[in-house]
Records
---
Amino acid sequence: MRGAKRSRGSLLIVAGALSAGLLAATGTAAAAAPRYTPGAPGAGDPYFPDMGNGGYDVGHYDIRLAFDPGTQAIDATTTILATATQDLSRFDLDFQGPLTISRLSVNGRNAAYTRSGAQELVITPPGGLRKGSEFVVSVSYAGVPQKIDDPALGVSGWVATKDGAVALNQPIGAATYYPVNDTTDDKATYTQTITVPTGLTVLANGEPGPTTTNNGRTTFRWTMNRPMASELSMLAIGDYNVTRGTTADGLPNITAIGKSIDTKPGQGKVFNETTAQVVQWESSLYGRYPFDSTGGILADVGVGYALETQSRPVYDHRTSDVDGDLLAHELGHQWFGDSLTPVHWSDIWLNEGFATYSEWLYQEKFNNIPVQKTFAKTYAGEKDWSGKVADPGRDHIFDDLVYNRGAMALQALRMKIGDQAFFQMLTQWPTVNRYGNVSTRQFIEFVERLTHRDLGSFFQTWLYQPGKPAL
Ligand SMILES: [Zn+2]
């Protein structure tokens, strides 16, 4: 994310998988009787204890949603393919707000469910689910989704706009319009099939499928075939001018600008070409681009930030012009944040420090402002040195501390270990951990292995200790 204040397959329900699940659910006579227990209602993040759940691992989300921009109502069915990681008597999904569920099934059979607290959808399948078995959960629901407006973290989730809606889900918005295991360490592939009145455009993560029109309604399909954390899923529905191109390497590049936004002549082309240029340049620094397409969406959404939604960031046009360094930030996140995602939100500097450093590198490469100069200016100008970069606290995950001091820590590391090791790290860290989950501890160990040095006190000073580090 970068905020205003700073700127400044369709679900392949293979018959086999389904029947295996049913078989497991009914149990087989030979094995010792399993002890079925409930999955945990949270995934264990200290900042967001209710987010995510335990007892299963999602492989794929199939979201089918019809949207009426007149009423802002949706009518949807989300089907989830998951694998039990324990013998499950029941399990939770995260699902919040006023949407009404009309049907819920597990492996094709109606399942009992209750809704508990702000976001727990507690599901009891007709029979227990054996550890290791695949199962399919299908939830049909309807209503008008409501965004989240967190006093500390701002707006996320389903946001109504003048001509449609935009869904931005970091950190806690996904559950406002689909049932989800809303934790960064349960990545899954996605298909989003969205039906809207003909004339409107739908954009989402990944690659577009065929578009079909029937009786005044058009259905768009978008597929993300690489693992994606739910906080990085995205939808944009409205009046958009879409530009298609490729990067120099031939990667499909789809950008869009909301028609209501006052643009300079040719801005659609410039936005598309700058995106291609930045992705190409960042690939030379960070290794092969991790997804099968790229792009960006300039939207009139009014949230006050840009967000690194996977493969295709969303830029709120009221925040900033879509200039190269902002693109470098959100596209840099495709490696740092999207392909590599922290297990816990306390480690978000691994996203924001690297994304901010991407801006600094962009300024050096394209605007002749040396990184060291940006570092010195930031170091001299930073007023607030309280707080821990690698554990800023729940309400401070989007604070300047995480961004600026995160990037400063990287530049300080570069000065300490030298350019050769530093740029090796910039390529190898995202390559070795591609599509995975990471922690600050892992990062420190990685750099120490790479350099054969004990950097414990260096990282202690820059990441864990409040106060201005001496240079
Ligand atoms: Zn960011």
---
Amino acid sequence: MVVRPLRDDRYVVETDHGTYVVDLDERSCTCPDHAIRGARCKHLRRVAIEVNEGRVPPPGKRSAVCAVCGVRTFVPIAERGPQLCDDHRFTPGEFARDRETGSVLVVTELTTERADEYETEEGRTVADYETNVHYGGHEPVVEAAYVESLRAVDGVVDLEGVRRYGFPASRLQRLGRSHPRVAAAPTTDAAPV
Ligand SMILES: [Zn+2]
Ligand SMILES: [Zn+2]
């Protein structure tokens, strides 16, 4: 049996006996077995297994390739532009280190605009900057603010009005959600051999 996702969240199942359409949400299949007995036929079961094992995207998602590492990942069907896998994705509010300067930033937004298309206030694209030549122009731009520039009001960090900068995704290194002062401690990066 070969399972292929359709654009409308359903799946085509090709078998030696015929080709059927499975709808996981409706728990339906177009095969005679399902039509006659309303049984949970083997096609429905097969689609569920393939989704669970990550071989086909779940309903509402589509396959995409991570712009940083090239690994296959699933993203919402409506998402356009360059995409990132779970390992390279950024979530607003998480800390990241700039690989060029070592500065610690807080991510404000993960865009789906390419670095060679995203224009800064200076009217240049992010990819145009000399500090970004080693990062892919096809990568999505991550917007982030320098931690030093953040001001806390009543103990809550206010991201409104904070100056944000755009970076190619792989220029920033994720630091997780730990406190930036802890995360910014010297790392044990391997020495050149
Ligand atoms: Zn069936
Ligand atoms: Zn990746």
---
Amino acid sequence: MITIDHVSKTYASKQGEHHALKDISLTIESGDIFGILGSSGAGKSTLVRCINLLERPSSGRILIDGNDITNYRGAQLKELRQSIGMIFQNFSLFQQRTVLENITFPLELTGCPKAKRETRAKELLDVVGLADLSARYPAQLSGGQQQRVAIARALANRAKIMLCDEATSALDTKTTVAILDLLKTINREFGVTQVLITHALTVAESACNKIAVIDDGRIVEQGATHSVFAHPQSNALHELIENSRSVISAQGVSIVEQGA
Ligand SMILES: Nc1ncnc2c1ncn2[C@@H]1O[C@H](COP(=O)(O)OP(=O)(O)OP(=O)(O)O)[C@@H](O)[C@H]1O
Ligand SMILES: [Mg+2]
């Protein structure tokens, strides 16, 4: 379980202070696929980066399974980061390493022997459906395939939490559906809790059991996905719904319908 307890984050810059997160409290249960939904600049990435301390909260606490991680440093911080996988919109693969070497990389950092690393990487290649492509380089893969490699790499150390920051935003609709299906499979079969940031309503709707809507650094509503979407309360969610309707009518199809 991830407990975000009255977390605020203020960035200081030459232009002054920016309050990116304002007193956020949120509980993400183990096994959730928890969506963080909000428009650009709302604070989604900042919030999720606080969970693995890529950003440190300015105030408040973050607990993982009851342990207060907020002030972790050194070996504890390293161990925390190893237990949390993260994937990004731009895949962030090592271009000079093959698919297999990308996946073994986090295991090298933990001193895992070569033969074990490769066995684990091959298991993961099977999970993500890329067993045939282990010797390729990232530039020789499609976007969807690159994201599969990133997912495998995120899981190499048997992470129990995955943070996905706009993981499908660079992908077309069909590939988005396939990647969301893979994340759901990983959630179900390996019990990996997923925190999924998105500004796309359809992604939250089709993948997440719970969502929180963030607007200007505050959580403006949260709950089970179906009930939040059945009775949207906040202006932020109404706006996202409006935007999404215009995109869907422009495309003539919704990802939810395609994903069936
Ligand atoms: N390192 C930083 N220094 C100063 N301000 C920052 C920093 N990182 C983010 N911000 C500001 O904090 C606010 C929240 O940013 P954040 O990246 O969390 O938004 P987001 O919801 O992820 O947006 P997007 O959907 O565009 O990725 C923005 O106004 C942003 O400009
Ligand atoms: Mg972001």
